[in-house]
Design brief:
mainly alpha; 2 helices; elongated
C-alpha cells in the first residue's frame, strides 16, 4: 500500500559547496585546537590567541549556519 507522501523538499544553496567544505574543515581544525588551550589555562598558562580562535570559531559557525539553514 502506498501512502500519500508530500514531495521531498529540495534545497538549493547559492553558496559555493567547495567554500562551505573549506570553512567546515577550518571550523573542525579550530575546534580541535581548543581543548589543549583550555588545559593550558588550567595549568596557569593563558594562550594569547585562544580568544581570537574562539571568535573565529563563532564567526565561521554563524556563517555556515546562515548558508545551510533553509
Amino acid at each position: 500500500m502506498e501512502k500519500n507522501l508530500p514531495p521531498a523538499k529540495v534545497y538549493h544553496f547559492a553558496a559555493d559547496p567547495a567554500k562551505l567544505e573549506h570553512e567546515a574543515d577550518e571550523l573542525s581544525r579550530l575546534a580541535q585546537s581548543i581543548p589543549p588551550d583550555v588545559q593550558s589555562v588550567a595549568k596557569g598558562m593563558f594562550p594569547k590567541d585562544v580568544v581570537q580562535k574562539l571568535k573565529h570559531l563563532e564567526k565561521l559557525s554563524k556563517h555556515l549556519r546562515g548558508e545551510l539553514a533553509p
